[in-house]
Amino acid sequence: MLKSFVWHVNYKLDRSLIREGLKKLEGRHDFKNFSSGHEGKKETKIVIQEAGCLMRDDNLIIISIKAEYFLTYMICYLVGFIDAVASGKETLDKLEKLLKGDGELSDYCAPPRGLELTEIKYR
């Protein structure tokens, strides 16, 4: 029933690494390595106010990220990289390096299905 609305993976994910990776996103970081099409458009240093997840018994993982604003494809790249860490393809150290703006665009991008903008607050 959820097939059209979630990203299905057929490999094991380390749930503790998902939580650790999301925690590292919180705070002010340079997200230029987690977006495309940002060149000259917006400031790439963004404050992530909250990043967490809900892990259900049926293996559904719901990731929630709250920020000042988001860059183009930023959430797809972040979730894709967290998946790579949780599946053992990447490390938390590499995540920290990319969050400093070092290196290049992440090789991992989650598909957009399942992404949902839930709230916008104006000041």
Structural class: alpha+beta
CATH class of the domain at 15-99: Alpha Beta
In what range is the share of β-strand residues?
15-25%
**Major sheet, described briefly?**
3 strands, antiparallel
From the N-terminal CA to the C-terminal CA, the straight-line distance is 38 Å
Which series of helices and strands comes N to C? HEEEHH
Q: Which features does this protein show?
A:
123 residues, alpha+beta, Alpha-Beta Plaits, 3 helices, 18% strand
Structure, described:
The chain is an alpha+beta fold and about 120 residues long. The chain has a domain at about 15-100: Alpha-Beta Plaits. It is built from 3 helices and 3 strands; from the N terminus they run αβββαα. It has helices spanning about 15-25, 75-85, 90-100, and strands spanning about 25-30, 45-55, 60-65. The chain has a 3-stranded antiparallel β-sheet with strand order 1-2-3. The mean pLDDT is about 90.
Write the layout of secondary structure elements.
Elements: H1 15-25, E1 27-30, E2 45-55, E3 61-67, H2 74-86, H3 92-99
Antiparallel strand pairs: 1-2, 2-3
